[in-house]
Amino acid sequence: MTSPMPAPAFAGVPGAVPRSPVGLGRAAAALLGLVIAADLFAVWADVVEMNVAGDLADGVTGSDVLDRADRADSLYRGAGVAQVTALLATMAVYLCWLWRVRVNAEVFNPGGQSKARGWTIGGWFVPVVNLWFPRRITLDIWDSSAAWADRPGHALVNSWWFVWIVSLFADRAAATMYRRADTAAALRDAARQMLFSDAFDIVAAVLAILVVLKITRMQHEKALAGPVPIPALG
After folding, report:
1. Rounded distance, CA 197 to CA 188, Å?
2. What tens digit of pLDDT does each residue of 58-113 get?
């Protein structure tokens, strides 16, 4: 019987060690919570806008309605600024976290990454491929980060990506409706569509938090567990 082979570094990468994703993961999750707060503010603004536009569409007039309409427009613009600010801040930290866990995934399992490393960031910004590359990259990271003897299912990642895509298209549809709205009734419909979009964005952010925390936890635990043991041959 031959002697047991020594356990290599992670997945056979000489001297490679993963870097902790815990700090970035917590920061990304916290900022995703800020996105949820901004979306809740936007939902309130959508409801106010929808109610005022509905009154105007029903023929309700008077200075009170016009004052409410002005306040609704100001509220809607403020919600938009809050959403954009939260999104940009979250995007910066989230992409830093994603890059960290992607590099770690190569340490754990260099042969398990189906896309080049550059797509980890670029895949979000290139039209068309951004509809599926980030999901594929996340799944590769997910599988590579799991415990050596464990391969959790993809339901959480797939659910997050589905809801994110729905919210993305719903937002674009709502923006188009707002640009084209030339009556109070059309504005009410646009506000209703934006309410749908913001609600889905909240769900997507909640699922994104769960994905971030799960991958962060899996990588932390896998790093602590050390390299996969190699059984004796004989």
Report:
1. 14
2. 777 767 777 888 888 899 899 999 999 999 999 999 999 999 999 999 999 988 89
Does this model's pTM top 0.70? My answer is yes
Buried/exposed code over 133-142 (b: 16+ C-beta within 10 A; e: otherwise): bbbbbbbbbb
Which amino acid, one-letter code, is at 133?
A: F
For the stretch 141-194, pLDDT in tens is 999 999 877 778 999 999 999 999 999 999 999 999 989 988 888 999 999 999
Q: Are 108 and 56 in contact (CB under 8 A)?
A: no
Distances (CA, A) of 212 to 44, 61, 128, 171, 216: 27, 49, 24, 23, 6
In whole angstroms, give the CA distance from residue 36 to residue 33. Answer: 5
Is the Cα dihedral 197, 202, 207, 211 positive or negative?
Answer: positive
Burial (CB count within 10 angstroms: exposed 0-12, middle 13-18, buried 19+), residue 209? buried
The domain limits of the chain are: 21-225
SS (H, E, C) 24-55: HHHHHHHHHHHHHHHHHHHHHHHHHHHHHHHH
Residues 136, 121: Cα–Cα separation, whole Å: 13
Radius of gyration of the chain (CA): 23
